[in-house]
Amino acid sequence: MAFLGNLAHSERLEYNLNQNLVIDLSQINEPKRWFIVNDGVMGGRSVSSFQADKDSAKFSGEISLDNNGGFSSVYRPLSNFNSAFKKVTIDIVGDGQTYQIRTASNIQGYRVAYKHEFKTLPGESQTIEFQLDDFEATFRGRLISNAPKLTETEIREVGFLMTKKQPGEFALQVNQIVFSK
Length: 181
Description:
Blueprint: E1 14-15, E2 21-24, E3 35-38, E4 47-53, E5 56-63, E6 71-77, E7 87-93, E8 98-107, E9 110-119, E10 125-131, E11 136-139, E12 142-143, E13 155-163, E14 168-180
Antiparallel strand pairs: 1-2, 2-14, 3-6, 4-5, 5-14, 6-13, 7-10, 7-14, 8-9, 8-13, 9-11, 11-12
């Protein structure tokens, strides 16, 4: 179940020499910090997992449209950043399908998701950069046109979402996520 809250006291975000926040999925304990939210929270039947896979983690599963289903997601809680980030870069290998990178913020007591779609190339390594200003605010799947722009100080989660209008399998290998200036 999704939650907003403080990270365990042992949580330590890794910053490189350029003061970028690096989430390195090759680190043995990193995939354990992520949690799954599927459409089962609304009665759907999609399934997914987030498993360590050599030097990365693999977000994979099967989307089902049964019981009004149609999405799977994986998220990682984040604590307050100590730098002014303006962009996020992902290093991934996809399956040719479209995914969303998502962040979550707590705005006026509500969990608001900010999304940006990206298309993957089947079996090809991709490095994709997103400007935080380009993320769109959503609440329960609906766009919020008057929401504030996404800022790094409000980000409490980062993750990926697979949603589509037809059933089927998906697989996204995630190597690294970097928040930078």
